[in-house]
Amino acid sequence: MTFFKKTSPRRNQVRRTIASERSWWCRLHADASLAASFLLWLVFVVLTFGVLSFGLMQTQRNRAVAALAVLNVLMAVGAAFYVCHYQPRLLRNHARATALAFLIPFLLAIAKICSLSSGEALWGPSWGTGTAVLFAIVLVIAYDQRFAVGMTALYCVLAAMAVGPRHDQGFQLQGIGLFLTMMSGAEICCFSLKEIRTRMKLLEVSALSAVVVFVTASSVVYLNFLGEPPKQTTVFLTAGFHACGAFIAGLLVQSLLPLIERVFHIATSMTLLDYSDANQPLLRKLAMEAPGTFSHSLLIGSIAEAAAEAIGCNGLLCRVGAYYHDIGKIN
Predict the structure, then answer these.
(1) Phi and psi at residue 323, in whole multiples of 5°?
(2) 162-189 burial by CB neighbour count: b if 16+ within 10 A, else e?
(3) Which pLDDT tens digit goes with each residue over 30-61?
(4) 122 or 132, which is more confident?
(5) 306: how many CB neighbours lie within 10 A of its CB?
(6) Which residues of 192-219 are buried (b: 16+ CB within 10 A; e: fewer)?
(7) pLDDT tens profile 180-194
């Protein structure tokens, strides 16, 4: 009987020592991960506040600066809870967390600087729409649709605060119209872009986003004028600038796709399709030196892809992995 089985005291001592060492190492590793994540959060808060308050401190509006700091911290806390709930792996994967923490202030800075340099021109707020669409597409590629929707909503709020203020007239926001315009284009990208298997996919998503942004911006322009209706040229120019910003953002993502994969350490469907090409040197070598194994890998790939898609997983990733799972049999 196992209850009366004789055990060695030395073995029990070794087991207790190993368990205590493992628990100590796990606690130390968890504390280090939390500390690094907290430092990244602080960096994100400081950079975001620096971008949003650019030009505001020179006006000596201390109360406005304090209110902006409070709003910034509250939104950063909400973003931290959202990340912990939907992407807890970012607490351990500091490379991807760093890329996300620096991407938001970087795009906000671009929208802020370009908007300020545009002055009162009609295309000034369109920089916020373009960066919002760009951010949404990058997050859908790097993560998933649900996480991209929530983080894009946060970015649209920050971008509305960055692009909207006119410091010579006080800290005044453009209103909900700019936020709706950015959200319409960004959310269309989140819901319509699930994976990139063809080069035309980003163009189609960008064109659809531009159409939705154009319609939304036109409606917003009409709502902003409560008195005499605006001129048709003003409406079309304003909406056209926003639509062009959304479309150019999609084209920019297509050109920067290899860089996005390297920064976020991901492989898109286009990269996986390249790996599945039978003309890849490794697969060609497998087909020539172990043809039976090569045929077996192709069969397993088809089965794995069907099984993965049946449970809602990435079937293409399973198929490519199955192609290479017996690559060591070349030897």
Answers:
(1) -60, -30
(2) bbbbbbeeebeebeebbbbbbbbbbbbb
(3) 567 778 888 989 999 999 998 888 776 666 66
(4) 132
(5) 12
(6) ebeebeeeebbeebbebbbebbbebbbb
(7) 889 999 999 999 888
Identity of residue 246? A
d(CA 137, CA 205): 9
**Burial (CB count <10 Å: 0-12, 13-18, 19+), residue 100:** buried
Q: Enter the tokens of residue 201.
A: 């996919």
Q: From residue 231, give the alpha-carbon distance in Å to each of 174, 203, 219, 235, 289.
A: 20, 31, 13, 6, 72
Q: Could you tell me where the DSSP H helices lie in 164-199?
A: 176-192
Decide if 179 contacts 164 (C-beta within 8 A): no
Three-state secondary structure call for residue 227: coil
145 CB neighbour count, 10 Å cutoff: 15
The rounded distance, in Å, linking the Cα atoms of 124 and 206 is: 20
- Give how far the C-alpha of residue 126 lies from the chain's centroid of Cα atoms, to the nearest Å: 20
Distance of alpha carbon 304 from alpha carbon 88, whole angstroms? 27
Sequence-distant contacts of 49-56: CB under 8 A, at least 24 apart:
50/105, 51/105, 51/108, 51/109, 51/112, 51/162, 52/108, 52/112, 52/158, 52/161, 52/162, 54/112, 55/116, 55/167, 56/165, 56/167, 56/171
Q: What is the CA radius of gyration of the chain?
A: 26
Tell me the pTM. 0.79
* d(C-alpha 121, C-alpha 295), whole Å: 62
Q: What is the pLDDT of residue 168?
A: 45
Task: Retrieve residue 94's tokens.
Answer: 């500091």
Q: What one-letter code names the amino acid at 68?
A: L
The tokens of 268 are what? Answer: 């898109």
